[in-house]
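Protocol step 4 of 6.
Sequence for 3-methyl-2-oxobutanoate dehydrogenase (2-methylpropanoyl-transferring) (Pedobacter jamesrossensis) entered exactly as in the expression construct, tag removed. Do not edit the line below.
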Amino acid sequence: MQNEKLITNSIDASELSFNDFKSIVINDYKIAYESRQASVLGRREVLTGKAKFGIFGDGKEVPQIAMAKAFKKGDWRSGYYRDQTFAFATGISTIKEFFAQLYANPTEGADPFSGGRQMNCHFATKSINEDGSWNDLTQIKNCSSDISPTGGQMARLVGLAYASKLFRENKELDYLKHFSVNGNEVAFGTIGNASTSEGVFFEAINAAGVLQIPMAISIWDDAYGISVPAKYQTTKEDISEVLKGFQREGNVAGYEIYKVKGWDYPALCEVYEKAINVCRDEHVPVLIHVTELTQPQGHSTSGSHERYKSKDRLSWESEHDCILKMREWMLESAIVTEEEIAELEKTAKSFVRNAQKEAWNEFLDSMKPEQKQVVDFISAMAQNQPELAKISAQLAATADAQRREIFVAARKAIRLSAKQHSAERDELLTWYKKQETVNYDRYNSKLHTNGNEAPDKIQVVDAVYDELSKMVDGREVLNACFNENFARDPRLVAFGEDLGNIGDVNQGFAGLQAKYGELRVTDTGIREMTIMGQGIGLAMRGLKPIAEIQYLDYLIFALNVLSDDLASLSYRTKGIQKAPVIVRTRGHRLEGVWHSGSPISMVLGSLRGLHLCVPRNMTQAAGIYNTLFRADEPAVLIECLNGYRLKEKLPNNVGEFTVPLGMAEVLEEGTDITVVSYGSSLRIVQEAAEELISLGISVEIIDPQTLLPFDKGHICAASLKKTSKLLVVDEDVPGGASAYILQQILEEQNGYFHLDGQPKTLTAKPHRPPFGSDGDYFSKPSVDDVVETIYKMMHDANPLKYPSIY
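Step 5 output, structure tokens:
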């Protein structure tokens, strides 16, 4: 009953009668007032313990109503966690869904934005189905999944707007009818004034100005960032003053910048209509700086704003509350009487309260069957066991038991009855094991899309060679691979620093901009965060972006965007959105502090949700690219920086053969020791293995090819059954990626049981390599290091056969 959607409509004074106009205004006030009541009640629910934390959009209601009027089907939002009124006004969310998210209800359909995984005010719309297939995004008012890091939405916003430019200007994309209507879509972004101090904001503003894309950014300015006032946040205490240099003038491209008071309903409606028309029709970025806003309940439920705001400020805020001001204007304009508006407010309060009650009761009701089952199971087991009887009674007496309490009781009962087998205990165990699967789906599923185009569903095609196959530089293999795929799939686009005109610093894209045009192979500025955001936004709109980071070392500049946004996207939306970005970079064996390029543990720890591909040469890289181009999940692929000019045989089917992800390969068979390595270090290991043969040691060398996923076929454990010894060679720091590889082999694959000695790791030193060949030699594993480490392991196992070298 409480799930009805009440949306706002545009105002066209030239066509509307007064009664129609009055109806729209009253409806807008109703939405704003209901949203305020949801904020007030939501805060109360947190403070009474029903929810863990709450953050709300109070004080921003009226400008969000105005913004919603200009938001059309096909448009996109990349916003801020204050935008609940906008979500209500566009129909993206209902009040009941808002509260279901506040309670973290994982029941199917309760929180359609995140499946109970995100806190309130984090919205998303359903872009894809369970099988990964796309919905018709032109028929949806699209909302990209919110993230909590303030400013983080800005990087993605650039890509969402850039997609409209590509759809408008690249006619090869006209067949993608479900993704765009001639590129007419606007990407709406919102951000708080304090977060405009962040680097990603300025990077995104500059990128959109350069690209000239239909991006409409609204800044909600309430003069504070939690407790910190604007004088400590922004030069001149006014972000639109700071950004005046971006204002377009004559034939000089730039922004249209607008400034409007956040409590002035008619002015807001007028400004938003004008600004979005310019943005949509002229395809230029616009900025709307909404000033004199308030935040009546403070930043969040973590504290009160009375602690840091002066009495004068608090008094001003109470007088300039946007809902109060809209109410006064409606009365002064004779749109409504005091009696009518009082009745409206009374009804709105009741509506919100009922929606909250329904959401809370449905949340509890979803768990009551589980509570009853566990109580019954434990009661049946509790004969002559007072401790079990106590657990059962406590759980039965818990009126608002949540799932954690239910499972704590169940697991404790299982532990306490471990020595007392019974049919009743077996029933509880059977139930518990079934619930493990159910709870995995509730709380742990969809790290990856796992749809019909998942990488492991892409057909494996072997590389084909014949006597005419040429030996070429590795870079030429990549270039041929990219050329074939760009000819095959017009959705593919690539962009990055120096990628376009010169074909990237290592010539993988040489000549391809001239062949496919600047819209598809594009140079960018030095702006790693928004290069990644450009990729995310394009991928969310159905394109196939290759977002290049010039060197792996520079990935650090974009790690926040990749980790907070891209890596968690499928998980945090429970699989209703995807962004199959391919992050192309290069690293490993080079020289110098800033180009040493193997911080793999950083990537492994930060980017679960992406595939991490570490091919040993450019042919393997091309095969993995061919897989990723046909798949629909995001990945990072690290090319070997010292391999571009090494000779490789060019496959006849260079654009077609595929290398499956997670399939390790035995490069050389051996009997004495298993060595696992990846990337450029494999060549070091292979060279060392040749010398070790002369010392009577046979080395089995395994290349995992991808670290996420890692060796799904358990090739490493199978090798250990033969050799019983393990060495991991890694260019990362001690305990970095080598620790991850050990965990995968010893724990995940049970490789520990096949060892007859301590497994070893040979890694780089715990610092970045100094410049020069000598610095590389003394900082990263060398052939000498590998030979002597393996020999020492053999000596420890058989000192008579392998006498000590030193």
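Step 6, annotate. The mean pLDDT is 96.
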